[in-house]
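Bug #2210: token dump truncated for 4'-phosphopantetheinyl transferase?
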Amino acid sequence: MSGAVERTGAATAPALTLAPGDLHIWVLPRPWTHTDPAPLPVGELDDGERDRAAGLTRTGDRVRYLSAHVALRRLLSAYTGIEPQALRLGRDRCPCCGGPHGRPVLLGRGRETAQDWPQFSLSHSHQVAVVALAGATVGVDVQRVPPANAVRLCLPDLHPAEQAELAAVPGRRRPAAFARLWTRKEAYLKGLGTGLRRDLAADYLGTGAPGPARRGTPHRPAGWSVTDVPGPPGHATAAAVRTPHHYRTVVRTLTADCLHAEDATELIADSRARVHRVPQTAARRSQK
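Reproduced locally. Full output below:
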């Protein structure tokens, strides 16, 4: 994992675009490994990213972090036309305390958010990383299905209606149902910019339909669309977009060669051949 990269601000026409109402999900099913034919271009990352990676004591954690952030920058480059190393990433203000640790954003020339560029969110769990891009505020989360004992420990922290729904799921299916619920909740909290600093019981992200609540079923958060997204086996993935409307979700696979190839932008653009579109009916059904 090496390679110094010259930092320039040169921009070209974006290789990929987001149409209004689009949500693009990119899944990286495995990180870079030492058996890959070329080094990981960590020179494309900024000092803060490299420092955070250096602080991870486990080699596997460090490689997964670096792989996910190289993937993020290369994807953002494909959507903005700006070289990965020239992109400036920052944080919005936290809605809870006002501190500079809210959701991640692209920055313009100063500290202001680049309003015309894609909103994005990154999540990684074990061997999988997921990046979501949209024209509106977005959060994404991926989690490996947990063991049953982890589900039992976390259940009391959830919204009472969520606890009741999971209690009604047969035992063998409960961990997968919990993972789907948890990713919906964390995707929403990441979209808000609070992360897990917000009370997990404060918001209902269960299986109840959005809109007018059925008797005894609470509302999902107003002004947000939260959807289960197809992902790798053994994992749950969800995305939350700040819009009251349904949106078109397209899931693409980001192959590991996109992490080190010099023509990564072309490879990313060609990934349109490996598209999985989530039908609107499926998106609605996932919220019921």
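Output looks complete on our side. The chain has one domain: 22-285. Marking as cannot-reproduce; reopen if the truncation happens again.
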